[in-house]
Amino acid sequence: MKIATFNVNGVNGRLPVLLRWLQEARPDVVCLQELKAPQEKFPEAAIGKAGYGAVWHGQNSWNGVAILARGAQPIETNRGLPGDPDDLHSRYIEAAIGGLLIGCLYLPNGNPAPGPKFDYKLRWFERLTEYAAGLIALDIPVVMAGDYNVMPTNLDVYKPERWLDDALFRPEVRAAYHRLVAQGWTDSLRKLHPDERIYTFWDYFRNAYGRDAGLRLDHLLLSPAIAGRLVAANVDREVRGWEKASDHAPAWIELADKPASRQPGRSRRRTSP
């Protein structure tokens, strides 16, 4: 099973890019972020024509998350992250697909930091960590995928010294991510590529993509019940170079039908180095 996460940065404006990628990559499950579309404007018909069922949590102009399943209809199990009834941002949706529980999330950016937006980010991270602990306790196969808006280590950012005060790289945020992972989650890309610089985001400015001045913001975390099935993980980097592309590229994993009998090896790259 191939599971991907993709911050589309506007699902309607970049629909041709999304549909092309779906046709070429043929992921079984896709988590989308930054739909930037209200509930009624999600392109359900076009995505259905491409062969995918969908559940989504839209929001006018900002945020928005969705889960797609190839040849199936996701069964929605949760909408919105628990812990704050006053938080109306569309940042979390969850569904059951093919024996897996898929959580799709778009964690707040948090800039400028310090400030109210940064405080909101840290609170959201705390709520996510509390909720994730409950998922771990269920001892079921769970994938939590999305744009976490955090670079966990120096390997995940092209020039760490330039990002020390940014909300995506501040010590408080990296510590929050590591507390989450320490519950027992496996960071898929880092598991299979422990020493590589792999990015999922390149800014539109200063030729960031051309210079490979990127960040790894998009992560797929696996619960212990499914981590042993991980056999491949990578980024479809070339999608970032397509016309009218998102500033993110899709990150993906492949899971075996049953736990791998050997240590997972590196995946075959579809992308340029």
From TrEMBL:
Probably binds two magnesium or manganese ions per subunit. The active site is at Y106, D147 (proton donor/acceptor), H248 (proton acceptor). SUPFAM superfamilies: DNase I-like (SSF56219). The keyword Protein biosynthesis does not apply. The record marks N149 as: Transition state stabilizer. Its cofactor is Mg(2+); Mn(2+). Its EC number is 3.1.11.2. Residues 4-248 form the Endonuclease/exonuclease/phosphatase domain. Mg(2+) binds at N7, E34, D147, N149, D247, H248. Keywords: Hydrolase, Magnesium, Manganese, Metal-binding. CDD domains: ExoIII-like_AP-endo. The record marks D218 as: Important for catalytic activity. The record marks H248 as: Interaction with DNA substrate. The keyword Ligase does not apply. One of its GO terms (molecular function) is DNA binding. Gene3D superfamilies: Endonuclease/exonuclease/phosphatase. One of its GO terms (biological process) is DNA repair. Belongs to the DNA repair enzymes AP/ExoA family. This is Exodeoxyribonuclease III. It comes from Microvirga brassicacearum. The lineage of its organism: Bacteria, Pseudomonadati, Pseudomonadota, Alphaproteobacteria, Hyphomicrobiales.
